[in-house]
């Protein structure tokens, strides 16, 4: 490549100071990387600060070709109402059932059993999300 540069007319295409260019690129990379980390940090903080409801499927049982029962445990603030969305998938990973469950009451931890009606035999019970009812 330097042989080609040597044959080009002097000053026609210019030459960048490679040390100066390297410093600028490193500075730009550092600034962009720092901005990305800041954005991810703010997003994570916002998610944790605003999401006061969490849950998990403790166990599930396939009842029949048209129903799956799930034992759901929800953690929330006292007196808060939460809405949790559960789904069941078939053996081919297609969704065969979905249900929104409202969880209310003074307790901060609520255990409940939910039956998800399915269009085909379900093989799973999965919690998609739990949110405060006013965020739903």
From TrEMBL:
InterPro entries to which the protein is assigned, alphabetical: DUF4307 (IPR025443)
Highest taxon above the source species: Bacteria
Key words of the record: Membrane, Transmembrane, Transmembrane helix
Transmembrane segments: 27-48
Protein name (record): DUF4307 domain-containing protein
């Amino acid at each position: 490549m330097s042989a080609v540069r040597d044959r080009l007319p002097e000053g026609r295409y210019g030459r960048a100071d490679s040390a100066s260019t390297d410093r600028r690129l490193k500075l730009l990379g550092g600034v962009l990387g720092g901005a990305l980390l800041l954005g991810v940090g703010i997003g994570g903080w916002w998610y944790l600060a605003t999401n006061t409801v969490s849950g998990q499927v403790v166990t599930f049982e396939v009842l029949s070709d048209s129903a799956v029962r799930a034992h759901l445990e929800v953690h929330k603030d006292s007196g808060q109402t939460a809405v949790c969305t559960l789904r069941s998938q078939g053996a081919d990973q297609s969704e065969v059932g979905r249900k929104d469950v409202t969880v209310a009451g003074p307790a901060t931890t609520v255990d409940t059993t939910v039956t998800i009606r399915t269009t085909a035999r379900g093989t799973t019970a999965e919690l998609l999300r739990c949110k405060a009812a006013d965020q739903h």
